[in-house]
Amino acid sequence: MERDRPVQGLGERDGALRRSGFRPTMVGIGRRPADRVFPDGAFLVASVRGTVVGEEGFLLFFNRGLLSVERSELPEAAASFRAAAALRPEHPVVWFLLGVTLRTMGRAEEAAAALHVAFRLRPGHHDTLFHLASVHLERRRPDWALPALRRLIALRPGHEGAAFALGSALMALDDPEEAERAFRLAALLQPDGAAVNNNVGAAIMAQRRPRAALGHFRRAVRIDPSWPEHRKNLGVAQLMRGELEEGFRDYEWRTGQAVWQWNRSFPGKPVWNGGPLAGRTILVHYEQGLGDSVQFVRYFPLLKARGARTVFECQPPLKQLLATAPGIDVLVARGETLPDFDCYLSLMSLPHRCRTVVDTIPRDIPYLRTDPEQAAFWRERVLGHARPGELRVGVQWRADGGDRSIPLDRFEALSRVPGVRLFSLQQAVGLDELERLGTRFGIVDLPGRRAGAEGFLDTAALAKAMDLVVACDSVVAHVAGALGKPVFLALPWLGNWRWMKHPDCTPWYPAHRLFRMASPNDWHGVMLRVAEAVADEVRRARS
Length: 543
Prior knowledge:
Layout: H1 16-19, H2 34-37, H3 41-52, H4 56-70, H5 74-87, H6 92-104, H7 108-121, H8 126-138, H9 142-155, H10 160-172, H11 176-189, H12 194-205, H13 210-223, H14 228-240, H15 244-251, E1 281-285, H16 290-296, H17 300-305, E2 309-314, H18 319-322, E3 330-333, E4 343-346, H19 350-353, H20 372-383, E5 391-396, H21 412-415, E6 420-424, H22 431-441, E7 443-444, H23 452-464, E8 468-472, H24 475-482, E9 487-491, E10 512-516, H25 523-542
TPR repeats: 92-125, 194-227
Pfam families: TPR_16
Protein name: Tetratricopeptide repeat protein
């Protein structure tokens, strides 16, 4: 069932799936016109006037509520249905209408309470089951929606909306295998539904099967070529497979999504279409996270090679760090005055405009530099806490995203590797874990690191002083990679598209070694393999 308008977040996995680039089309359970919410209103009036109800007061309030619905006067309708329910609390129809009215008004908590009463009084009513499940999805309680949806499907297997909603609930509960089955049932009932086919693909992608998902995304695009979400999902699947030229082309559709928050508009200035740049000034503005800026700033020398004068508008915390990146003529932080320019582009559109394939990824690494004095200062402090011959390992466990963050207690095996000295590279967040476990794991947290933009300079200098960095998928891992340091990168089950399909390496950072989960949520197994690999590095250094 295609939705009428974007409904942000419904049935969506808030951790791994979103942050890996996927956004399933959600079940359309937003506000609807009264004639669609109450299609059986005439039947209900006839039923009440027949054998069900005889009290004049109940009829008065009940019919007044229906009339208010027809007039789209929903607060008045809710008040009338409440009055009717007070007179006949055992009547399921009035509770159902009250619940649907409240839900249409956006009052989900009250709607859920009314619909629960209607369900208790009439447990086999299809519409009650569907609205009850839908309001639980709106309340971000997919676990409460499951029983109603499964009961509805058992009673009415051909209910298209039930199977779709069940898939959305299961995706929210991080059960993509069962979600795939539900969406496939919905696709059997509605084979030409773009949203259904898209969501089959999203459920398959969440199982780390991009090749199998491609066909479903392509079908969704064929059915509705104008829907940006489906085309963007197709692009992400292609990127994960290493099909960069096609993937970056379709990933451009991300900017057309209603929920996309990084679009910029500069009236009178055109978006750069990949044409000649000689003698022109191009503004590139950041998009998405800090790590994205560090990764894709490598493209500026390509713009300079085309004869462009370049301006980069970056996130304020990165301005001092990115000042060393080559190819940037003018670096400004968001909020600062921009110089004049001829055209502009989002940073993450550069790979598409530069027609990137795997073999043409810019690999001139290192492309960031540390200040020599700062590097010497932090190196001296690091050496003062490490015994001669110890492998200096910088560790970082918390990312801006719970699915990518590693619980610090999973670093226990690494802390027990002989010949290793661990140093914290964690910034700002995650320090509560360090306070609790740092001493036990022997993690050195050097004092004196600054906050804000200067903190990134200190972190970069610390990473430069390490023999190896062990990190989650975060900006610190990108900074270390841009400095040319070896990085052991621990990835969640559904790694971001940028890490593609390679089991243990990436063309973006040749010194990175990837450690992927063998099964969902298995940080313990990942970090055991990281500890074994670090132990091998110690033995290699001593041989």
